[in-house]
Amino acid sequence: MNVLAKLKKEWFLVGMLIAIVLATVTSEFGRSDGVIHLDQLTGVGIAIVFFLHGLGLSPQAIKAGVTNWRLHVYIQMATFVVYPILWVIFGETFLAYMPSALAFGFCYLLVLPSTISSSVAMTSVGKGNVPGAIFNASLSSILGVFITPLLIQLFMGFEGVQLDLLDSVVSISELLLVPMIAGQIMRPYLVTWVERHKALVNKVDKYVILLIVYNAFCDSVVNGIWSEFSVGLLATSILICTVILLVMVHLIQWGARFTKFALPDEVAAVFCGTKKTLAAGIPMAKVIFGADPALGMVLLPIMLYHPIQIFYCALLANRYARQSESLKTVTHSSAPN
């Protein structure tokens, strides 16, 4: 019963594994331009997901976090400068020892924006600066529409990857930004409905991601991409994702303490600065890489990184919560009677 309860709690991660397994035996059914035209269906789903994200963003909470400019600069620099520098340092090594599609997948992982929902949720659990987290996670998603394709062109263009930068930015804006803005406009009229159906709304993006993962891996299987992939390479990829996360968590913690951030700001910086979005990353990949048969392998690093970051950051959030409670206890006990 404990195992069943655990599987039910982690249904999304289990669902991703099932989607990958299904793709190996039903690839013709789920491929792009296949029987059910899943690529078109997921395009509609993506628009719905980001419309719902727009509905869920509170303007008041975002405004409350605007003034803390040191925190904003710190988080966005971690996301769009420090992570990409890792590719500058190690990119040639990845390309030398991995299939090029997988190496480019790590490049793509490193230039993605932060998440919104899990960054804010982890910050809240860790007793951090929630308004600051909301503002920065939202800002990261918006900046990522422009910065991610620019960095992909900068890094991968040298390796013969052709990308129409303007067309990619416009396409990603239409796919992600326009529905989000529409959601913000409609928020006053629909926010009550969203709150009433919050349990369902919070799962919609996960359902859409599962469909996209299934579609991407069906395309990969049909085109024989996985014939060059081994169990050892998968284990190596998991190890690299884990090392990247641990390095960035401790680097951001060290920097936050060196610059004397308050603990709530450090919590927000760690959880917004180390997250990479699966929800926006997979749709953006479909725009940037199109119907590339290697898309499944390109997406593998972010699919591996996502559960690793959720698991580790959940542990870290609980640790931060205990630290915050300890500080409150010390403060109250030392306060004059």
Commentary on this structure:
The protein has 337 residues and is an all-alpha fold. It contains 15 helices and no strands. It has one domain: Na+/H+ antiporter like fold (Up-down Bundle). The longest helix is centred in the last third of the chain and has 40 residues. The protein is globular and about 60 Å long. The termini are far apart. It holds the Pfam family SBF_like.
Reconstruct the topology from this structure:
Layout: H1 2-9, H2 11-25, H3 27-30, H4 38-56, H5 59-65, H6 69-97, H7 100-111, H8 117-125, H9 130-156, H10 165-196, H11 198-222, H12 231-258, H13 263-273, H14 281-289, H15 295-334
Pick out its properties.
337 residues, 82% helix, globular
In short:
This protein has 337 residues and is mainly alpha-helical. It is 82% helix and 0% strand. The protein has one domain (3-322): Na+/H+ antiporter like fold, CATH 1.20.1530.
